[in-house]
């Protein structure tokens, strides 16, 4: 007897290979032109499906989750961060939530290095100058930046991305310091110096790189008080989430020169970023592309499908969060 395929909503355009595999197993409903659904459109699109495979651009707040149909039983995210999903609300409704860890850690660590170097060595300022035909001068004092080799690299949130980013920073001869909810085992720590408070980490970080999830505990963790703890002319790197940083305080620290520069892949308001930050030469900015490589996007899509397949086969999805 033929059993019908589960119906799966894929709200954003995913890689062709991922869509092809999805269609083998599911009746796929696509959002044809890849726009971000409004809250109402997301709720409406979910009414006729058994599962959804969203990105961090689809916000499953408690009120959206309350409006989902009983037949929708799993939200299989195409992201590792799940701050766009109200996990307690999903759990209360018996909706399974999964994410895509590990497969994007290398790509995101690469972008953290790009942000660090772009900020330290004035990458976007120099690029704009050459591109716009304003490079009409050179001297030994021209466009001088900060060397990161041999400096201290502070990791706030030493999880999957944080550990790989630390490995990449070791390649620059940097001394690794970190703060995490719990201390790592020596084989994972690899000689990095553990700090049992955020403040203690910040006090030594020539480069501070953020890698903890956005949560009520981490929102605004980087603010006027904590920025003032960093060494003079430090560099802030954020590839985690914009919510971690008070952007007004960051702008003030960058304007005063207290902070040498910032390298940012994520912002409080996305897409778009912060126009006031965009006015500053000492900010290197990217449009949330931490995981945006062909290889990684395939792997994220396949990982989300693995989670869905396990769920519909009646086995525990590898990356089940609730
Ligand atoms: N820019 C981008 O495109 C990407 C951004 N991300 C962001 O990076 C985050 C981290 O990803 P993973 O490393 O895979 O997650 P993870 O869960 O492996 O690591 C997060 C670490 O932060 C620690 N942590 C949590 N709260 C903390 C707190 N209050 N103080 C100190 N440490 C705390 C945890 O103990 C854990 O070790 C994601 O949640 C996501 O927001 C991840 C991938 C791509
Ligand atoms: O996975 C995430 O959390 C992202 O931010 C995008 O890959």
From TrEMBL:
Residues 17-319 form the D-isomer specific 2-hydroxyacid dehydrogenase catalytic domain. GO terms for molecular function: glyoxylate reductase (NADPH) activity; hydroxypyruvate reductase (NADH) activity; NAD binding. Its EC number is 1.1.1.29. Residues 115-290 form the D-isomer specific 2-hydroxyacid dehydrogenase NAD-binding domain. It holds the Pfam family 2-Hacid_dh_C. Keywords: NAD, Oxidoreductase. It is an enzyme of class 1 (oxidoreductase). GO terms for cellular component: cytosol. SUPFAM superfamilies: Formate/glycerate dehydrogenase catalytic domain-like (SSF52283), NAD(P)-binding Rossmann-fold domains (SSF51735). It comes from the Bacteria. Coiled coil: none annotated. Belongs to the D-isomer specific 2-hydroxyacid dehydrogenase family. This is Glycerate dehydrogenase.
